[in-house]
Amino acid sequence: MTHQHRHLFAAVGIHPHDTKDCSEASLSRLQSLASDANVVAWGEIGLDFNRMYSPQEKQERWFIRQLEIAAELKLPLIFHERDSRGRLLEILKTVPDNQRQAVVHCFSGTESELAQYLEMGFYIGITGIVTIRQRGESLRRMIPSIPSDRLLVETDAPYLTPSPQRNKIRRNEPAFVREVLLKVADVRGEAPESLANQVWANTCRLFRLAL
Length: 211
What we know:
Number of domains: 2
CATH topology of the largest domain: TIM Barrel
Largest sheet: 6 strands, parallel
Oligomer: single chain
Radius of gyration: 17 Å
Helix content: 25-40%
Number of strands: 6
Number of helices: 7
């Protein structure tokens, strides 16, 4: 699919929900896929202690293993973190990598976690949560403190449909990323066009896209 569209790229990895079925064989298959030039990242990987579709031990074991593989392949990472209560950060600190580049996808953590991610040099991904009145309140407070060169916008489609579309359409779509950017620009007091250019530059830098 990625070879059929010039501006379409892919990431490979085992999501924490699926680590119960992970194996070295499945990771070996993904490593083979990652040799393709259109695969620009490893992920999304991480920890999710909210729904616990996979046991914590398996989530942590395969998260660490995938960190090692991504380091070997020199690929940037896409992190998934939900309700890990600081455990993801603990693991990242015990598996250090000075060359590690990553985005914390769908950031919904605390101010302390945000500060630590930024100190590690990571990018912060903002989704439609920012547009939701109550759920996005704490996120909107933190957004102005994110350096402009570490900011990314996302949709997490088909989930987290942003307002105002969420009042009419249940399924999120990639096109709705516009609403996320407009809200982030409003919260930061920046011109949408300027922010869009900065976010695009950040995206290309992280995923090493020469577009």
